[in-house]
Amino acid sequence: MSSPLLTTLAVAEHNTGDTAWLLASAALVMLMAPGLALFYGGMVRSKSVLNMIMMVFGALAVVSIVWVLVGYSIAFGDDVVGGLFGDPFQYLGFKGMLEDVVSSEGGLPVTAFAIFQGLFAVITCGLVAGAIADRTRFGTWLVFAAIWTILVYAPIAHWIFDFSAGEHVGGWMANKLGALDFAGGTAVEITSGASGLAVALVLGTRIGFGREPMKPHNLTLVMLGAGLLWFGWFGFNAGSALSAGNTAAIVFVNTLMAGCTGCLAWLLVERIRDGHATSFGAASGVVAGLVAITPACGFVTPLGAMVVGAAAGLVCAVAIGWKYKFGYDDSLDVVGVHLVGGLVGTLLIGLLATAKVGSVDGLLYGGGLDQLGKQLVACLATFAYAFVVSGLLALALDRTIGFRVDEEHELSGVDLVIHAETAYDLHAATGGARPHLGGGGHLGGSS
Amino acid sequence: MKLVTAVIKPHKWEEVREALETFGVTGMTVSEVSGYGRQKGHTEVYRGAEYDIALVPKIRIEIVIDDGDVDDVVGIVVKAAQTGRIGDGKVWVSSIDSVIRVRTGDRDEAAI
């Protein structure tokens, strides 16, 4: 309901149920950031867990601010520069959005839609950090996160998430090409994977990569993080229905199914290839399945979702080995899980989409090859743009302010060098800490 | 006086301690250590990548005893710690010049 105290630009008829679900979903997506921080944090060595968590929290802080300032406008403003991105000045600092305006999606406060989308940018940026664990300068990472949101994420989000409505002209991928991406197989998964690959190549391999053991230091954190991600993913996917109705319910079921089959498929690969079904494999398989169902969740049946999740579990479990074969140090497998899983899910729409759930039939439902072709174009365009622009940005930052820590600091551990902290004090009696509290021996630093 | 040092499998530590206590050994120092012998570590797999973990967790027990008890104590430790499989550990005996009890200043046999 519109408030009589506010100026109304459009006739604001809010659907309170939809609005409540969207705001709750936005909060669920926000929870994915700390979930990702734990998921990644457990995977690194104990000397860099805090830095890993800080990179994700840093992305949350920086990207959220940049999104409100200009990111949303670039993603959802009217097409400029031949459809590459939206008008950056149209909604600068959420200009003109705070009045009681409904979104072109219908019945939703535009601010709720805008911040829901902003948290997608946050998690996408956070994912990139996994490719450059253990060796990244924190300050440069924050600068990267800000510029990357403007140059990489927001334009791609414009292409695929900004639908034309009335006089508003949206992005080319969703409107002219007609590619389908329900919740971010391209803008989130392929973008993060391609960006991660580019930045990992610029930074180079960690000292000892492929020779020294760099095993995960805490798999219980990894499992907890995967659980929080899965929980948050219900907001990510089912919230993308932008309505608390039948589509959201189907998407919710599909999100559960793909995580389950992804988990089991990954474990099957491990049991056959390595001899053991591992907890790390279970967590990875869940995430691979969720990644793949993200673009497809609003277009396939629950049985289709099981196929999508299983396919991602199988393919990603193999793809994570490529970094050793080709020698790129994508530390926490952003390429193997998010790029590859995103490709699997986005392409499988072309096969498994059914008009019973969405609006299009894929190849297996008699829709021909048409949709698959569109999906392929969307995948390639997203990969190429994200890879090239992220790579150039990382290169520019590396040449100017430096993107990688010194060799000595990398060896002694980035937690201690960058943040002056260590994550765990397991030897309280012999840790050797002599108090100089607050600096100069004064508790709290007062004098 | 002798120092008996035993490096044993962690799951055998409780049996060794009970056997020594029954015999009358009143104290010992125990540490969690890692090392390797002929069994050469083990393999772990994370996301398909195999890691050769060279060091195996072990328990090190150190006991200072009278010369006359050495054969008994070593026999007890070996019997209690033995599984017959590779990696059971080692026990060695070394001579000690002097022992002092911190609380009283008692020396040598009186301090054991």
Describe this entry's structure for a reader:
The complex is a heterodimer of chains A (447) and B (112). By secondary structure, chain A is mostly helical. Chain A has helices at residues 16-43, 49-76, 110-129, 138-161, 172-177, 185-203, 219-238, 246-273, 279-296, 302-319, 322-326, 334-352, 370-400, 407-412, 414-419; strands at residues 79-80, 85-86. Chain A has a single domain, classed as Orthogonal Bundle (Ammonium transporter fold). In chain A, helix 1 packs antiparallel against helix 2, helix 9 packs across helix 12 and helix 12 packs antiparallel against helix 13 (370-400). Chain A starts with 15 loop residues before the first helix and ends in a 28-residue tail after the last helix. With 112 residues, chain B is an alpha+beta fold. Chain B has one domain (2-111): Alpha-Beta Plaits (2-Layer Sandwich). In chain B, the strands form two sheets. In chain B, strands 2-5-1-6 form a four-stranded antiparallel β-sheet, covered by helices on one side. In chain B, strand 3 and strand 4 (49-53) form a beta hairpin. Chains A and B meet through helix 9 of A and strand 3 and strand 4 of B. Chain B: This is Nitrogen regulatory protein P-II.
Top keywords for this entry?
heterodimer; A: 447 residues; mainly alpha; Ammonium transporter fold; two-stranded antiparallel sheet; disordered N terminus; B: 112 residues; alpha+beta; Alpha-Beta Plaits; two-stranded antiparallel ribbon; 21% helix; elongated
SS elements, strand count of chain B: 6
Instruction: Please identify which CATH superfamily of chain A we are dealing with.
Output: Ammonium transporter AmtB like domains
Biggest beta sheet summary of chain B? 4 strands, antiparallel
Runs of chain A with pLDDT <50, length 5+?
Answer: 1-10
CATH topology of chain A: Ammonium transporter fold
